[in-house]
Amino acid sequence: MSIQVRDLRKTFGHFKALDDVSLTFHSGELVALLGPSGCGKTTLLRIIAGLEYPDSGAVLFSGEDATFTHVRERGVGFVFQHYALFRHMTVFDNVAFGLTVRPRKQRPSREEIAKRVHRLLELVQLDWLADRYPDQLSGGQRQRIALARALAVEPRVLLLDEPFGALDARVRKDLRGWLRRLHDELHITSIFVTHDQEEAMEVADRIVLINQGRVEQVGTPQEIYNAPASPFVYGFIGDANRLSGHAAGGWAELAGLRVPAPEFGQSEPRPVTGYIRPHDIQLQAGDKGEGVAVRVESVAQVGAALRVGVRIPNGDTALQVELPHHGGHWPFQVGEPVRALPCAARVFARDGAH
Amino acid sequence: MSRNRVIPGFGLSLGYATLYTSLIVFIPLAALAASGISLGAETFWAVVSHPQAVASYTLSFGASLVAALINLIFGLLVAWVLVRYTFPGKRIADALVDLPFALPTAVAGIALTALYGRNGWFGQHLESWGFKVAYAPAGIVVALTFIGLPFVVRTVQPVLEGLERELEEAAASLGANRWQTFRRVLLPALVPALLTGFALSFARAVGEYGSVVFISGNMPYRTEITPLLIYSKLEQYDYAGASALGMMMLVFSFVLLLAINGLQYWSLRRRGGG
To answer: Superkingdom of the source (chain B) (predicted)?
Structure first.
């Protein structure tokens, strides 16, 4: 089922949680709402779920207005960051809850419920825990049970609020891959909230980046990484060197580095901020040739990459450079003079206007 | 086994706790038992099985149970209102709940008697409908309810405050209506606290004396509670008889509190806490 939100606004006191947000979620896709804490992403999710109502704007489910439909009738499965499992019920009863609270006429028979619960527990690979209580499970297991419970009512949409936020790094990584596979199996329209860009990049079909109640950019993980639409996105997704400088005549001068800036064709220089990814800088040995002369300050190997810290002497600017590395000795040593050459950069006007 | 404990001071703290409970609880109770036993089995039995005594047990424990039950229901309601809603004067209402703790029970008894007596604000109307409260068992229940109210409120309140809103939201998103959410999600989480509050309120009511003597009228066989019977025995210098009745109360109370504790243990076990 597709979901549309239109011109959503929501304030809490003087705090603007959502400021004119319009988005479309296509049927069957897995979308991440990504942003720093307090950016409004959870509020957006809760409004879609019906756990919160907007001050203005509309939520449409398959084109039908659902803005003020009660969460009970909305047909959404909601997974909470802290699981919200019912502690006095067994795992089985937790998963069965949504079926057993149905009015008698729509309630499946006892055997049918048992069958469905076990099928769901198999789906989350925890069938052997049916008789345990939530307190006896690990965090990762609890979250999978919470997911099974949400799926039991056959929701039209699955909404997950920081589903892996309370888990430790290792489990989080496992569950990410698992969620992706589960989604590929079920194809239920899913939206999940996260502040972890890596999680969003790895799991989601599309990412919605939110900052201060507004949508900064919407796109596939590749689009967002390769073509960030704003300085905020650059700062939030991946690493980037942030450099101040001036631009004029289609070129920008950033601390001695010259990069193309086609948006700035005017003749008088304007203050700009440029962003260069660490892997978009090349280093060349020697102090003659293209690029700007820098001095190597640190070298460290991280996995298959070499992280080189260099400093531009005149402006006293530090740059992070990432080079592919396939074993052997390091091509650069600390203290060595080299030349840095940017091969891609993005320049934004510093006052916010082009 | 105490050699390698992480938390030190086991020996000292256990010793102190034992000494303290011995001085404050066990030794006085032992003295009570000794005094009661000095009667000899036959006399003891004659005292404790006297119809007047039996009537007083029934009244004491019956009224206490009814009062604790009333407190269970309305204490939960008061706690719910105090936790869930904001309203002007909430702080004051919250402080008022503790008043029965602080008020000398005799004062409470006099106030209630004034209210429910034949000429009191409530009493005159109730009496005209043929409902007698003061100088009747109902009056005892009213007094015991009054003094027991804070227990349920104060035990349930923190648990209710600690319940995550998310539990209710989860239940609602799964299609449960308000009543189902309360009945199947909230209430089970509150059961241990409710049982504690019930037990405390009940225990307090069984031992209550001050407020009841004023409102009950103290008619033998009808409105005479066991503590009062004990007191009247003391006034007649029948210390051994008073002790015997005291022992009976002790045994009943102990059995009932043990049963409530057992219930609590069972309800905790059910959530896998052990």
So the answer is: Bacteria
The CA-based dihedral angle spanning residues B208, B231, B115, B149, taken in that order and rounded to the nearest 10 degrees: 0
Averaged pLDDT in 10-residue chunks for chain A of 354 residues: 93 91 94 91 94 93 91 92 91 94 91 93 90 91 93 92 87 88 91 91 93 93 91 88 88 86 86 90 81 87 88 81 83 86 86 51
Residue ranges of chain B assigned to CATH 1.10.3720.10: 40-269
Q: Rounded to whole angstroms, how far apart are CA atoms B217 and B117? A: 11
Interchain CB contact of A78 with B (< 8 Å): yes
Two structure tokens written together for A221:
């993980």
Q: For residue B2, give every residue at least 6 positions away whose Cβ sits within 8 Å of its Cβ, in sequence order, or none.
A: B10, B11
Going from the N-terminus, what domains does chain A have, and what CATH number goes with each? 3-236 (3.40.50.300), 241-349 (2.40.50.140)
User: What amino acid occupies position B241?
Assistant: G
Cβ contact A84–B166 (<8 Å): yes
The token pair at B158 is 């923190």
Q: Based on the number of CB atoms within 10 Å of its own CB, is B82 exposed (0-12), middle (13-18) or buried (19 or more)?
A: buried
- Whether this prediction's pTM lies above 0.95 is answered by no
| Residue whose structure tokens are 């700035």 | A264
Chain B residue with the nearest C-alpha to that of A84: B167
Does the domain at B40-269 match CATH 2.30.29.30? Answer given as no
Q: Which regions of chain B are under pLDDT 70?
A: 1-4, 270-274
| Amino acid at site A211 | N
Instruction: Give the pLDDT score at A49.
Output: 94
Nearest in space to B150 (alpha carbons), one of B213, B91, B204: B204
d(CA B147, CA A22): 58
Residues 254-313, chain A: which have Cβ within 8 Å of B?
none
Nearest CA in chain B to A69: B173
Residues B230, B246 contacting (CB under 8 angstroms): yes
CA pair distance B242, A312, nearest whole angstrom: 97
Four-residue CA torsion sign, A212, A216, A220, A223: negative
- B273 reaches A (C-beta below 8 A): yes
Residue of A nearest to B183 (CA): A101
* Pick from B174, B189, B272: CB nearest A153: B174
Strand partners, A166: none
